[in-house]
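Pinned message: reference record for MmcQ/YjbR family DNA-binding protein
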Amino acid sequence: MSSQSVLEVAFGRIVKLAEARGLPEVVVSTSYRTPSLKVRSKHFVRLKDPETLVLHCPSEQKALLMEISPEIYFETPHYVGQPAVLIRLDAIEDEELALRLEDAWRFKAPGTLAR
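Predicted structure (tokens):
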């Protein structure tokens, strides 16, 4: 299986959870040559590799998530100071991941759409 196919298979879970939340105007796209989801042309989540998701979020939420669940949420030097947190996909349950996807969508969606 090609590395792109592996990413697409891993991203299937993310797409399914986003669809189940009923988030409006979500489009499957790519970012940095990896699968991503966007709302009105703004990426709110992307697959970094088959095991890691990049999730956009406010810095305060990022700090809290990493403090409460460091086995799930983390950052690398590249993401320090960025409004995004990394997620270990094998460590997070679908229910929590779906909530994080909705949070990221709300963070990036225009206010009129998020209401």
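Pinned by admin. Summary line: The beta strands are 26-31, 34-39, 42-49, 52-56, 73-74, 84-88.
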